[in-house]
Amino acid sequence: MKFEDYKLPFGYPLSLEGASAGGVPFKFASKVIGCIPGDVLILSHPRAAKASTLRPGQKILVTIMAGNGVLAFASVIDQIIAQPRPLVFLTYPTKLSFKEIRGATRVEIRVPIEAVCLSGLVATKTTGVITDISTSGARIELTESIGDIGGSMEVSGAITIARMEEKFNFPAVIRSRVERSTRESEAEFPAIYGIEFVEVPHSQRLLLYAFVYSLLATK
Question: Domain named Type III secretion system flagellar brake protein YcgR PilZN: which ranges (predicted)?
Fold first, then answer.
């Protein structure tokens, strides 16, 4: 995939790793400000970095938590400006590596859901299905796009445990977005997201664990 395919929103956090002119290693927090695909990537200047630490021509390793893994690429600082705000311009990444990190085993399912995006001024609703789930997150396919990476949402529906139907409502954060091909975009559920469950109430957390482990027991 190309960097722009990850659709990281402006303000998305990342890390810059490298070494100073004296050979002292560093790792600074920064954020995505913008980009011109194929040309330049624009980042905020790390607050913790001294003016002389970062310099044009310096090689940098960029790491980003994206979806269920870590996205990394090497780049070079092209330019640094101080006004109207401190910004770092990097050469646009051409080679990307992605290491998947999953904290829990996922199981394939197909459960109808309603998804509500809570990040905008007005809550946006749509329908879809959960296609795989773990105790920490899920993959969902929706009838339309409703949010960006880093946005908050809730997914709700009904699941069956020991022949009993239970209602669920799981708060989540969008961690990744998968773009279908042109042909696949005509599918019933063209918008695909990877979500992480966050701040799930205790009773709903117990329901989630019971559901996932009951599925694993049948595999």
Answer: 15-93
